[in-house]
Protein backbone atom coordinates (compact mmCIF):
# COMPACT_ATOMS: atom_id res chain seq x y z
CA UNK A 1 0.00 0.00 0.00
CA UNK A 2 1.40 3.40 -1.02
CA UNK A 3 2.00 5.69 1.96
CA UNK A 4 2.08 9.47 2.27
CA UNK A 5 5.20 11.04 3.75
CA UNK A 6 4.86 14.08 5.98
CA UNK A 7 8.12 15.77 7.01
CA UNK A 8 7.76 17.94 10.10
CA UNK A 9 9.26 21.40 10.30
CA UNK A 10 10.42 23.63 13.13
CA UNK A 11 10.94 27.38 13.50
CA UNK A 12 14.54 27.90 12.37
CA UNK A 13 15.30 30.74 14.79
CA UNK A 14 14.28 28.59 17.77
CA UNK A 15 16.35 25.66 16.48
CA UNK A 16 19.47 27.82 16.13
CA UNK A 17 18.94 29.40 19.57
CA UNK A 18 18.51 25.96 21.18
CA UNK A 19 21.61 24.62 19.45
CA UNK A 20 23.63 27.56 20.77
CA UNK A 21 22.34 26.85 24.28
CA UNK A 22 22.82 23.05 24.23
CA UNK A 23 25.83 22.77 21.89
CA UNK A 24 24.43 19.60 20.31
CA UNK A 25 23.41 18.38 16.86
CA UNK A 26 21.09 20.72 14.97
CA UNK A 27 18.76 17.93 13.81
CA UNK A 28 18.20 16.86 17.40
CA UNK A 29 17.50 20.48 18.35
CA UNK A 30 14.97 20.60 15.51
CA UNK A 31 13.16 17.57 16.94
CA UNK A 32 13.22 19.03 20.45
CA UNK A 33 11.70 22.30 19.21
CA UNK A 34 9.01 20.35 17.33
CA UNK A 35 8.12 18.62 20.60
CA UNK A 36 7.96 21.82 22.63
CA UNK A 37 11.38 21.70 24.32
CA UNK A 38 12.65 24.98 22.91
CA UNK A 39 14.78 26.25 25.82
CA UNK A 40 17.74 24.99 27.81
CA UNK A 41 15.61 24.48 30.93
CA UNK A 42 12.85 22.58 29.11
CA UNK A 43 15.41 20.37 27.35
CA UNK A 44 17.23 19.71 30.63
CA UNK A 45 14.00 18.62 32.35
CA UNK A 46 13.19 16.43 29.33
CA UNK A 47 16.56 14.66 29.24
CA UNK A 48 16.95 14.51 33.03
CA UNK A 49 13.54 13.56 34.55
CA UNK A 50 13.26 13.88 38.33
CA UNK A 51 10.60 12.57 40.72
CA UNK A 52 10.49 16.12 42.06
CA UNK A 53 8.91 17.09 38.70
CA UNK A 54 5.74 15.22 39.70
CA UNK A 55 2.81 17.48 40.51
CA UNK A 56 1.22 18.02 43.92
CA UNK A 57 -1.65 15.49 44.18
CA UNK A 58 -3.69 18.00 46.20
CA UNK A 59 -4.14 20.09 43.05
CA UNK A 60 -6.64 17.47 41.84
CA UNK A 61 -10.28 18.25 42.51
CA UNK A 62 -11.83 16.20 45.36
CA UNK A 63 -8.49 14.80 46.53
CA UNK A 64 -9.16 16.03 50.07
CA UNK A 65 -12.62 14.41 50.03
CA UNK A 66 -11.22 11.10 48.77
CA UNK A 67 -8.46 10.95 51.39
CA UNK A 68 -10.82 11.96 54.21
CA UNK A 69 -13.38 9.29 53.21
CA UNK A 70 -10.76 6.51 53.07
CA UNK A 71 -9.33 7.49 56.46
CA UNK A 72 -12.87 7.66 57.88
CA UNK A 73 -13.50 4.12 56.61
CA UNK A 74 -10.24 3.04 58.25
CA UNK A 75 -11.20 4.62 61.58
CA UNK A 76 -14.67 3.02 61.51
CA UNK A 77 -13.34 -0.38 60.35
CA UNK A 78 -15.51 -0.31 57.21
CA UNK A 79 -14.95 -2.84 54.44
CA UNK A 80 -13.34 -1.23 51.35
CA UNK A 81 -13.60 -2.80 47.89
CA UNK A 82 -11.02 -1.81 45.25
CA UNK A 83 -12.78 -2.16 41.89
CA UNK A 84 -11.15 -1.93 38.46
CA UNK A 85 -11.50 -2.69 34.79
CA UNK A 86 -10.27 -5.96 33.23
CA UNK A 87 -7.51 -4.47 31.03
CA UNK A 88 -3.88 -3.66 31.89
CA UNK A 89 -4.67 -0.18 33.23
CA UNK A 90 -7.48 -1.52 35.40
CA UNK A 91 -5.66 -4.54 36.80
CA UNK A 92 -2.43 -2.65 37.56
CA UNK A 93 -4.52 0.09 39.22
CA UNK A 94 -6.27 -2.44 41.43
CA UNK A 95 -3.07 -4.35 42.26
CA UNK A 96 -1.33 -1.12 43.31
CA UNK A 97 -4.18 0.38 45.34
CA UNK A 98 -5.12 -2.92 46.98
CA UNK A 99 -1.56 -3.56 48.17
CA UNK A 100 -1.08 0.04 49.28
CA UNK A 101 -4.28 0.07 51.35
CA UNK A 102 -3.54 -3.38 52.78
CA UNK A 103 -0.26 -1.93 54.00
CA UNK A 104 -2.14 0.48 56.28
CA UNK A 105 -5.47 -1.33 56.82
CA UNK A 106 -6.49 -4.98 56.50
CA UNK A 107 -10.24 -4.77 55.81
CA UNK A 108 -9.77 -4.43 52.04
CA UNK A 109 -10.52 -6.69 49.06
CA UNK A 110 -10.57 -6.26 45.27
CA UNK A 111 -12.98 -6.96 42.43
CA UNK A 112 -12.53 -7.24 38.66
CA UNK A 113 -15.72 -7.53 36.55
CA UNK A 114 -15.97 -10.43 34.10
CA UNK A 115 -15.76 -9.12 30.53
CA UNK A 116 -18.65 -11.27 29.21
CA UNK A 117 -20.93 -11.65 32.23
CA UNK A 118 -20.71 -8.02 33.37
CA UNK A 119 -19.19 -5.93 30.59
CA UNK A 120 -16.97 -2.87 30.87
CA UNK A 121 -16.70 -0.78 34.02
CA UNK A 122 -18.91 -0.67 37.11
CA UNK A 123 -21.56 -3.40 37.03
CA UNK A 124 -24.72 -4.11 38.99
CA UNK A 125 -23.36 -7.61 39.67
CA UNK A 126 -20.27 -6.04 41.23
CA UNK A 127 -22.30 -3.66 43.39
CA UNK A 128 -24.59 -6.48 44.54
CA UNK A 129 -21.50 -8.55 45.41
CA UNK A 130 -20.23 -5.64 47.52
CA UNK A 131 -23.59 -5.39 49.33
CA UNK A 132 -23.72 -9.13 49.96
CA UNK A 133 -20.19 -9.12 51.44
CA UNK A 134 -20.76 -6.03 53.60
CA UNK A 135 -18.60 -3.47 51.76
CA UNK A 136 -19.64 0.14 52.36
CA UNK A 137 -16.99 1.93 50.27
CA UNK A 138 -15.94 1.14 46.70
CA UNK A 139 -12.89 2.78 45.10
CA UNK A 140 -13.31 2.42 41.33
CA UNK A 141 -10.16 2.68 39.23
CA UNK A 142 -10.02 3.24 35.46
CA UNK A 143 -13.83 3.25 35.38
CA UNK A 144 -16.87 4.82 37.03
CA UNK A 145 -17.03 8.28 35.47
CA UNK A 146 -19.84 7.15 33.12
CA UNK A 147 -21.68 5.04 35.71
CA UNK A 148 -24.02 7.65 37.19
CA UNK A 149 -27.09 5.41 37.38
CA UNK A 150 -25.25 2.43 38.86
CA UNK A 151 -23.48 4.57 41.46
CA UNK A 152 -26.88 6.08 42.31
CA UNK A 153 -28.16 2.54 42.82
CA UNK A 154 -25.20 1.77 45.09
CA UNK A 155 -26.04 4.84 47.15
CA UNK A 156 -29.58 3.57 47.75
CA UNK A 157 -28.24 0.33 49.26
CA UNK A 158 -25.69 2.00 51.53
CA UNK A 159 -22.52 1.85 49.39
CA UNK A 160 -20.48 4.96 48.66
CA UNK A 161 -18.05 5.42 45.78
CA UNK A 162 -14.74 7.16 45.21
CA UNK A 163 -14.23 7.33 41.44
CA UNK A 164 -10.66 7.41 40.07
CA UNK A 165 -10.92 7.65 36.29
CA UNK A 166 -9.31 9.31 33.29
CA UNK A 167 -12.00 8.91 30.63
CA UNK A 168 -13.96 11.92 29.41
CA UNK A 169 -16.90 12.66 31.75
CA UNK A 170 -20.47 12.94 30.48
CA UNK A 171 -22.61 15.96 31.34
CA UNK A 172 -24.08 14.00 34.25
CA UNK A 173 -21.47 13.05 36.84
CA UNK A 174 -21.99 10.09 39.18
CA UNK A 175 -23.09 10.91 42.77
CA UNK A 176 -19.79 9.77 44.27
CA UNK A 177 -18.26 11.00 47.53
CA UNK A 178 -15.25 12.09 45.48
CA UNK A 179 -14.39 12.07 41.77
CA UNK A 180 -10.70 12.12 40.89
CA UNK A 181 -10.44 12.81 37.16
CA UNK A 182 -8.22 15.57 35.71
CA UNK A 183 -10.53 15.76 32.67
CA UNK A 184 -13.38 17.22 34.74
CA UNK A 185 -14.06 20.73 33.44
CA UNK A 186 -13.55 22.35 36.85
CA UNK A 187 -10.50 20.30 37.87
CA UNK A 188 -7.46 22.55 38.12
CA UNK A 189 -4.93 19.69 37.96
CA UNK A 190 -2.43 20.91 35.32
CA UNK A 191 -1.70 17.56 33.63
CA UNK A 192 -4.76 16.02 31.98
CA UNK A 193 -3.33 12.86 30.39
CA UNK A 194 -2.90 10.47 33.33
CA UNK A 195 -4.04 6.87 32.87
CA UNK A 196 -6.32 5.25 35.46
CA UNK A 197 -3.36 3.79 37.33
CA UNK A 198 -1.80 7.28 37.33
CA UNK A 199 -4.88 8.77 39.01
CA UNK A 200 -4.73 5.99 41.62
CA UNK A 201 -1.03 6.71 42.12
CA UNK A 202 -1.83 10.36 42.94
CA UNK A 203 -4.39 9.19 45.52
CA UNK A 204 -1.84 6.88 47.14
CA UNK A 205 0.65 9.76 47.19
CA UNK A 206 -1.83 12.01 48.99
CA UNK A 207 -2.75 9.33 51.56
CA UNK A 208 0.94 8.64 52.24
CA UNK A 209 1.59 12.38 52.75
CA UNK A 210 -1.37 12.65 55.14
CA UNK A 211 -0.21 9.69 57.22
CA UNK A 212 3.48 10.64 57.08
CA UNK A 213 4.40 7.37 55.33
CA UNK A 214 7.74 6.93 53.49
CA UNK A 215 7.71 7.69 49.75
CA UNK A 216 8.60 4.07 49.02
CA UNK A 217 5.13 2.98 50.18
CA UNK A 218 3.75 4.22 46.83
CA UNK A 219 6.89 4.55 44.66
CA UNK A 220 7.26 0.76 44.86
CA UNK A 221 4.34 0.49 42.42
CA UNK A 222 6.01 2.52 39.66
CA UNK A 223 6.75 -0.69 37.72
CA UNK A 224 3.01 -1.42 37.50
CA UNK A 225 2.30 2.22 36.66
CA UNK A 226 4.84 2.20 33.80
CA UNK A 227 3.13 -0.93 32.46
CA UNK A 228 -0.26 0.83 32.55
CA UNK A 229 1.11 3.97 30.86
CA UNK A 230 2.65 1.84 28.10
CA UNK A 231 -0.41 -0.35 27.55
CA UNK A 232 -3.05 2.40 27.66
CA UNK A 233 -1.32 4.41 24.90
CA UNK A 234 -1.55 7.70 26.83
CA UNK A 235 0.77 10.57 25.79
CA UNK A 236 4.38 10.05 26.87
CA UNK A 237 4.64 13.63 28.06
CA UNK A 238 4.80 15.50 31.36
CA UNK A 239 4.12 13.36 34.42
CA UNK A 240 3.52 10.22 32.36
CA UNK A 241 7.06 10.38 30.99
CA UNK A 242 8.57 10.96 34.45
CA UNK A 243 6.60 8.06 35.96
CA UNK A 244 7.37 5.77 33.02
CA UNK A 245 11.08 6.69 33.20
CA UNK A 246 11.40 5.70 36.86
CA UNK A 247 8.96 2.81 36.44
CA UNK A 248 11.19 1.31 33.75
CA UNK A 249 14.14 1.56 36.13
CA UNK A 250 12.18 -0.59 38.59
CA UNK A 251 11.15 -3.04 35.86
CA UNK A 252 14.82 -3.53 35.02
CA UNK A 253 16.25 -3.54 38.56
CA UNK A 254 13.61 -4.84 40.95
CA UNK A 255 10.20 -5.59 39.41
CA UNK A 256 7.33 -7.18 41.30
CA UNK A 257 7.22 -10.97 41.12
CA UNK A 258 4.41 -10.87 38.56
CA UNK A 259 6.30 -8.78 36.00
CA UNK A 260 9.46 -10.78 36.71
CA UNK A 261 7.57 -14.03 36.00
CA UNK A 262 6.12 -12.72 32.72
CA UNK A 263 9.60 -11.59 31.64
CA UNK A 264 10.97 -15.03 32.53
CA UNK A 265 8.32 -16.84 30.47
CA UNK A 266 8.94 -14.51 27.52
CA UNK A 267 12.68 -15.24 27.68
CA UNK A 268 13.64 -11.59 28.29
CA UNK A 269 17.40 -11.24 28.76
CA UNK A 270 18.07 -7.65 27.72
CA UNK A 271 17.02 -4.29 29.12
CA UNK A 272 13.27 -3.64 29.01
CA UNK A 273 11.89 -0.57 27.23
CA UNK A 274 8.35 0.77 26.78
CA UNK A 275 8.00 -1.27 23.58
CA UNK A 276 8.72 -4.44 25.58
CA UNK A 277 5.98 -3.56 28.06
CA UNK A 278 3.61 -2.95 25.13
CA UNK A 279 4.45 -6.13 23.20
CA UNK A 280 5.56 -8.59 25.91
CA UNK A 281 3.80 -7.76 29.20
CA UNK A 282 0.57 -6.04 28.10
CA UNK A 283 -0.76 -8.71 25.68
CA UNK A 284 -0.39 -11.44 28.30
CA UNK A 285 -2.22 -9.36 30.92
CA UNK A 286 -4.97 -8.32 28.51
CA UNK A 287 -5.37 -11.92 27.35
CA UNK A 288 -6.65 -12.89 30.83
CA UNK A 289 -9.71 -10.66 30.38
CA UNK A 290 -10.12 -11.43 26.69
CA UNK A 291 -10.10 -15.22 27.00
CA UNK A 292 -11.13 -15.89 30.60
CA UNK A 293 -11.14 -14.00 33.93
CA UNK A 294 -8.85 -11.00 34.55
CA UNK A 295 -8.89 -11.50 38.33
CA UNK A 296 -5.82 -13.72 37.94
CA UNK A 297 -3.90 -10.78 36.46
CA UNK A 298 -4.31 -8.94 39.77
CA UNK A 299 -3.39 -12.11 41.66
CA UNK A 300 -0.22 -12.28 39.54
CA UNK A 301 0.76 -8.68 40.36
CA UNK A 302 0.17 -8.97 44.12
CA UNK A 303 1.75 -12.43 44.59
CA UNK A 304 4.70 -12.40 47.02
CA UNK A 305 5.79 -15.99 46.36
CA UNK A 306 7.96 -16.31 43.21
CA UNK A 307 6.86 -19.87 42.41
CA UNK A 308 3.17 -19.01 42.79
CA UNK A 309 3.66 -15.88 40.65
CA UNK A 310 5.13 -18.08 37.92
CA UNK A 311 2.02 -20.29 38.08
CA UNK A 312 -0.23 -17.27 37.50
CA UNK A 313 2.08 -16.04 34.72
CA UNK A 314 1.79 -19.43 33.02
CA UNK A 315 -2.01 -19.13 33.13
CA UNK A 316 -1.79 -15.73 31.41
CA UNK A 317 0.75 -17.15 28.96
CA UNK A 318 -1.71 -19.91 27.99
CA UNK A 319 -4.53 -17.35 27.63
CA UNK A 320 -2.28 -15.29 25.35
CA UNK A 321 -1.39 -18.30 23.20
CA UNK A 322 -5.11 -19.01 22.76
CA UNK A 323 -5.73 -15.33 22.03
CA UNK A 324 -3.02 -15.30 19.34
CA UNK A 325 -4.44 -18.43 17.69
CA UNK A 326 -7.95 -16.94 17.65
CA UNK A 327 -6.59 -13.59 16.44
CA UNK A 328 -4.69 -15.19 13.53
CA UNK A 329 -7.55 -17.49 12.48
CA UNK A 330 -10.22 -14.78 12.60
CA UNK A 331 -8.01 -12.25 10.78
CA UNK A 332 -7.43 -14.76 7.95
CA UNK A 333 -11.16 -15.49 7.72
CA UNK A 334 -12.03 -11.78 7.71
CA UNK A 335 -9.47 -10.97 5.01
CA UNK A 336 -10.87 -13.81 2.90
CA UNK A 337 -14.41 -12.38 3.27
CA UNK A 338 -13.21 -9.00 2.00
CA UNK A 339 -11.13 -10.43 -0.85
CA UNK A 340 -13.96 -12.65 -2.06
CA UNK A 341 -16.38 -9.72 -2.24
CA UNK A 342 -15.45 -7.21 -4.93
CA UNK A 343 -18.14 -4.81 -3.71
CA UNK A 344 -16.67 -4.84 -0.18
CA UNK A 345 -13.12 -4.32 -1.45
CA UNK A 346 -14.11 -0.99 -3.02
CA UNK A 347 -15.83 0.46 0.03
CA UNK A 348 -14.44 3.23 2.27
CA UNK A 349 -15.37 1.26 5.39
CA UNK A 350 -15.20 -2.37 6.47
CA UNK A 351 -17.87 -4.26 8.41
CA UNK A 352 -17.48 -8.04 8.75
CA UNK A 353 -19.54 -10.52 10.76
CA UNK A 354 -19.34 -14.20 11.63
CA UNK A 355 -21.30 -15.83 14.44
CA UNK A 356 -18.47 -18.07 15.66
CA UNK A 357 -15.74 -15.45 16.08
CA UNK A 358 -14.38 -15.00 19.62
CA UNK A 359 -15.68 -11.77 21.15
CA UNK A 360 -12.44 -11.19 23.05
CA UNK A 361 -10.31 -10.58 19.96
CA UNK A 362 -12.58 -8.73 17.53
CA UNK A 363 -10.97 -5.38 18.42
CA UNK A 364 -7.52 -6.75 17.68
CA UNK A 365 -8.80 -8.18 14.37
CA UNK A 366 -10.23 -4.79 13.43
CA UNK A 367 -6.78 -3.26 13.92
CA UNK A 368 -5.22 -6.06 11.81
CA UNK A 369 -7.67 -5.40 8.95
CA UNK A 370 -6.73 -1.72 8.94
CA UNK A 371 -3.13 -2.76 8.28
CA UNK A 372 -4.31 -4.27 4.99
CA UNK A 373 -7.27 -1.99 4.17
CA UNK A 374 -6.65 1.46 5.64
CA UNK A 375 -10.22 2.46 6.49
CA UNK A 376 -12.63 2.57 9.47
CA UNK A 377 -13.34 -1.04 10.42
CA UNK A 378 -15.93 -2.92 12.49
CA UNK A 379 -15.72 -6.62 13.36
CA UNK A 380 -18.91 -8.23 14.68
CA UNK A 381 -19.68 -11.59 16.25
CA UNK A 382 -22.61 -13.29 17.98
CA UNK A 383 -23.05 -12.70 21.71
CA UNK A 384 -26.12 -14.48 23.02
CA UNK A 385 -29.15 -13.17 21.14
CA UNK A 386 -27.39 -10.12 19.73
CA UNK A 387 -24.43 -9.21 17.54
CA UNK A 388 -21.61 -7.40 19.32
CA UNK A 389 -18.42 -5.92 17.99
CA UNK A 390 -15.50 -3.56 18.14
CA UNK A 391 -14.57 -0.73 15.82
CA UNK A 392 -11.23 0.90 15.06
CA UNK A 393 -10.55 4.08 13.14
CA UNK A 394 -7.83 5.53 10.95
CA UNK A 395 -5.98 8.73 11.98
CA UNK A 396 -8.07 11.85 11.55
CA UNK A 397 -11.50 10.20 11.39
CA UNK A 398 -13.99 10.46 14.27
CA UNK A 399 -15.30 6.93 14.56
CA UNK A 400 -17.62 7.62 17.49
CA UNK A 401 -19.50 10.34 15.57
CA UNK A 402 -19.91 8.03 12.58
CA UNK A 403 -21.36 5.25 14.74
CA UNK A 404 -23.58 7.77 16.55
CA UNK A 405 -25.03 8.72 13.15
CA UNK A 406 -26.10 5.06 12.70
CA UNK A 407 -27.69 4.71 16.14
CA UNK A 408 -31.19 3.86 14.81
CA UNK A 409 -29.80 0.42 13.87
CA UNK A 410 -28.06 -0.20 17.22
CA UNK A 411 -29.10 -1.47 20.64
CA UNK A 412 -26.17 0.23 22.35
CA UNK A 413 -22.80 1.78 21.61
CA UNK A 414 -19.94 3.66 23.25
CA UNK A 415 -16.37 4.69 22.66
CA UNK A 416 -14.29 7.61 21.50
CA UNK A 417 -12.57 9.14 18.46
CA UNK A 418 -10.39 6.14 17.57
CA UNK A 419 -12.19 3.07 18.98
CA UNK A 420 -15.72 2.02 19.88
CA UNK A 421 -18.00 -0.92 20.64
CA UNK A 422 -21.61 -1.66 19.80
CA UNK A 423 -24.44 -4.19 20.02
CA UNK A 424 -27.26 -4.71 17.52
CA UNK A 425 -29.78 -7.31 16.39
CA UNK A 426 -28.33 -9.72 13.79
CA UNK A 427 -31.14 -8.85 11.37
CA UNK A 428 -30.01 -5.19 11.43
CA UNK A 429 -26.40 -5.84 10.43
CA UNK A 430 -26.94 -5.25 6.71
CA UNK A 431 -28.81 -1.98 7.25
CA UNK A 432 -26.19 -0.82 9.75
CA UNK A 433 -23.35 -1.76 7.36
CA UNK A 434 -24.89 0.25 4.51
CA UNK A 435 -25.61 3.27 6.71
CA UNK A 436 -22.08 3.19 8.19
CA UNK A 437 -20.59 3.08 4.68
CA UNK A 438 -22.76 6.02 3.65
CA UNK A 439 -21.70 8.10 6.67
CA UNK A 440 -18.01 7.29 6.22
CA UNK A 441 -18.10 8.02 2.48
CA UNK A 442 -19.74 11.40 3.08
CA UNK A 443 -17.48 12.54 5.92
CA UNK A 444 -14.01 11.00 5.60
CA UNK A 445 -11.20 13.03 4.02
CA UNK A 446 -9.54 11.22 1.13
CA UNK A 447 -6.12 11.59 2.79
CA UNK A 448 -7.36 9.56 5.77
CA UNK A 449 -7.72 6.54 3.49
CA UNK A 450 -3.98 6.54 2.78
CA UNK A 451 -1.51 5.65 5.57
CA UNK A 452 0.73 8.52 6.57
CA UNK A 453 4.31 8.28 7.79
CA UNK A 454 5.29 11.26 9.95
CA UNK A 455 9.00 12.03 9.52
CA UNK A 456 10.82 14.11 12.12
CA UNK A 457 13.76 15.29 10.00
CA UNK A 458 15.91 14.78 6.93
CA UNK A 459 19.46 13.63 7.67
CA UNK A 460 22.59 12.63 5.80
CA UNK A 461 24.43 9.36 6.45
CA UNK A 462 27.55 11.07 7.80
CA UNK A 463 25.38 12.74 10.45
CA UNK A 464 24.49 9.36 11.98
CA UNK A 465 27.25 8.88 14.55
CA UNK A 466 27.25 6.96 17.83
CA UNK A 467 27.06 10.31 19.67
CA UNK A 468 23.95 11.19 17.65
CA UNK A 469 22.43 7.78 18.48
CA UNK A 470 23.24 8.11 22.19
CA UNK A 471 21.34 11.39 22.42
CA UNK A 472 18.38 9.92 20.53
CA UNK A 473 18.39 7.10 23.12
CA UNK A 474 18.14 9.65 25.93
CA UNK A 475 14.74 10.67 24.51
CA UNK A 476 13.37 7.39 25.92
CA UNK A 477 10.85 6.43 27.13
CA UNK A 478 9.03 6.70 23.81
CA UNK A 479 5.28 6.78 23.35
CA UNK A 480 2.51 8.94 21.86
CA UNK A 481 3.66 12.57 21.40
CA UNK A 482 7.24 11.44 22.05
CA UNK A 483 7.73 8.71 19.47
CA UNK A 484 11.10 7.31 18.43
CA UNK A 485 12.41 9.82 15.85
CA UNK A 486 11.80 8.86 12.23
CA UNK A 487 14.27 10.13 9.62
CA UNK A 488 14.48 10.36 5.86
CA UNK A 489 17.74 10.21 3.94
CA UNK A 490 17.61 11.22 0.28
CA UNK A 491 19.52 10.13 -2.79
CA UNK A 492 21.09 6.94 -1.53
CA UNK A 493 22.05 4.05 -3.78
CA UNK A 494 22.46 0.33 -3.34
CA UNK A 495 26.11 -0.49 -2.77
CA UNK A 496 25.60 -3.79 -4.57
CA UNK A 497 25.05 -6.07 -1.59
CA UNK A 498 21.35 -5.60 -0.74
CA UNK A 499 19.42 -8.86 -0.83
CA UNK A 500 16.13 -10.56 -0.05
CA UNK A 501 15.93 -12.56 3.18
CA UNK A 502 13.41 -15.43 3.46
CA UNK A 503 11.57 -13.98 0.42
CA UNK A 504 9.95 -11.40 2.72
CA UNK A 505 12.50 -8.97 4.09
CA UNK A 506 15.20 -6.77 2.57
CA UNK A 507 18.73 -6.67 3.95
CA UNK A 508 19.93 -3.24 2.82
CA UNK A 509 23.46 -2.11 1.98
CA UNK A 510 23.19 1.56 1.05
CA UNK A 511 25.60 4.36 0.24
CA UNK A 512 25.42 8.16 0.20
CA UNK A 513 28.56 9.90 -1.01
CA UNK A 514 31.41 8.11 0.80
CA UNK A 515 29.29 6.88 3.72
CA UNK A 516 27.61 3.44 3.88
CA UNK A 517 24.97 1.89 6.13
CA UNK A 518 23.34 -1.48 6.51
CA UNK A 519 19.71 -1.90 7.39
CA UNK A 520 16.72 -4.23 7.53
CA UNK A 521 13.24 -3.71 6.08
CA UNK A 522 10.68 -6.24 7.27
CA UNK A 523 7.94 -7.46 4.90
CA UNK A 524 9.12 -5.16 2.13
CA UNK A 525 9.87 -7.78 -0.55
CA UNK A 526 7.53 -6.11 -3.06
CA UNK A 527 9.84 -3.07 -3.09
CA UNK A 528 13.00 -4.99 -3.89
CA UNK A 529 12.72 -4.13 -7.60
CA UNK A 530 13.44 -0.50 -6.65
CA UNK A 531 16.76 -1.68 -5.18
CA UNK A 532 17.57 -3.80 -8.23
CA UNK A 533 17.06 -0.84 -10.56
CA UNK A 534 20.14 0.82 -8.98
CA UNK A 535 18.46 4.23 -9.19
CA UNK A 536 18.78 6.77 -6.31
CA UNK A 537 16.28 6.23 -3.48
CA UNK A 538 14.77 8.15 -0.58
CA UNK A 539 14.66 5.97 2.56
CA UNK A 540 12.52 6.44 5.69
CA UNK A 541 13.92 4.74 8.80
CA UNK A 542 14.60 4.71 12.51
CA UNK A 543 18.12 4.33 13.83
CA UNK A 544 19.09 1.21 15.78
CA UNK A 545 22.20 -0.32 17.30
CA UNK A 546 23.17 -3.84 16.25
CA UNK A 547 25.14 -5.81 18.82
CA UNK A 548 26.78 -8.84 17.20
CA UNK A 549 29.45 -10.81 19.06
CA UNK A 550 30.22 -7.78 21.20
CA UNK A 551 30.67 -5.53 18.15
CA UNK A 552 28.23 -2.61 18.12
CA UNK A 553 27.28 -0.84 14.92
CA UNK A 554 24.49 1.48 13.86
CA UNK A 555 21.93 0.19 11.38
CA UNK A 556 18.72 1.41 9.76
CA UNK A 557 15.31 -0.08 10.45
CA UNK A 558 13.73 0.83 7.13
CA UNK A 559 10.04 1.80 7.19
CA UNK A 560 9.51 2.84 3.56
CA UNK A 561 11.38 3.79 0.38
CA UNK A 562 10.64 5.32 -2.98
CA UNK A 563 12.55 6.62 -6.01
CA UNK A 564 14.54 9.72 -5.10
CA UNK A 565 12.66 12.99 -5.48
CA UNK A 566 15.86 15.07 -5.87
CA UNK A 567 19.13 14.50 -7.68
CA UNK A 568 21.55 16.09 -5.25
CA UNK A 569 22.04 16.64 -1.54
CA UNK A 570 24.50 18.90 0.26
CA UNK A 571 27.24 17.09 2.22
CA UNK A 572 26.76 17.35 5.98
CA UNK A 573 29.40 18.88 8.24
CA UNK A 574 29.85 17.01 11.54
CA UNK A 575 28.75 18.86 14.69
CA UNK A 576 29.45 18.44 18.39
CA UNK A 577 26.87 15.93 19.68
CA UNK A 578 27.94 15.53 23.32
CA UNK A 579 24.99 16.57 25.47
CA UNK A 580 26.22 18.17 28.65
Describe the protein.
The chain has 21 helices and 19 strands. It starts with a strand and ends in a 17-residue tail after the last strand. The strands form 4 sheets. It has a 5-stranded parallel beta sheet with strand order 3-2-4-5-6, sandwiched between helices. A 5-stranded mixed beta sheet has the order 7-8-9-11-10, with helices on both faces. A 5-stranded mixed β-barrel has the order 14-16-17-19-18. The chain is 41% helix and 20% strand. The radius of gyration is 25 Å and the shape is globular. The chain is of the alpha/beta class and 580 residues long.
Which features characterize this protein?
5-stranded parallel sheet, 19 strands, 5-stranded mixed sheet, 21 helices, alpha/beta, disordered C terminus, 580 residues
Short overview:
With 580 residues, the protein is of the alpha/beta class.
Could you give the topology of this structure?
Layout: E1 4-7, H1 12-22, H2 26-34, H3 40-47, H4 63-75, E2 79-84, H5 88-102, E3 108-111, H6 124-132, E4 135-141, H7 148-156, E5 160-164, E6 178-180, H8 196-211, H9 216-219, H10 222-231, H11 238-253, H12 257-265, H13 274-291, H14 295-302, H15 306-340, H16 342-345, E7 350-353, H17 362-372, E8 377-383, E9 386-392, H18 399-404, E10 412-415, E11 419-424, H19 429-443, E12 452-455, E13 457-458, H20 466-473, E14 487-494, E15 499-501, E16 505-512, E17 515-521, H21 528-532, E18 537-548, E19 551-563
Parallel strand pairs: 1-12, 2-3, 2-4, 4-5, 5-6, 7-8, 13-14, 17-19
Antiparallel strand pairs: 8-9, 9-11, 10-11, 14-16, 14-18, 15-16, 16-17, 18-19
Helix pairs in contact: 1-2, 4-8, 5-8, 5-10, 5-14, 8-10, 10-11, 10-13, 12-15, 13-15, 14-15, 15-17
Amino acid sequence: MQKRWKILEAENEKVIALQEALKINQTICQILVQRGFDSFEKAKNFFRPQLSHLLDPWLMKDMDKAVDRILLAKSKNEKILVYGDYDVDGTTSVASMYQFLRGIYKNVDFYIPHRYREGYGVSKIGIDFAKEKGFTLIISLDCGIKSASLISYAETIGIEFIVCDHHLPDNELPPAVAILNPKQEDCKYPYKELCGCGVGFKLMTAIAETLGLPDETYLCYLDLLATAIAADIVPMTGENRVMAYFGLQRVNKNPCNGIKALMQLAGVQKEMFITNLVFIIAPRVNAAGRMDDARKAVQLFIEKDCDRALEFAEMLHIDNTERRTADTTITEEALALIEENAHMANRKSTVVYQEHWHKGVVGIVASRLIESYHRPTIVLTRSGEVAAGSARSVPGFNLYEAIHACKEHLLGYGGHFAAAGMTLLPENIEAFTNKFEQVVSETIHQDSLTPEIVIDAEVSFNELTHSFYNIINQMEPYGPENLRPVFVVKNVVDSGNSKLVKDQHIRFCLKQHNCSFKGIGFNMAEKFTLIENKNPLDIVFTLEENDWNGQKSLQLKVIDLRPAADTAVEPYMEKDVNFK
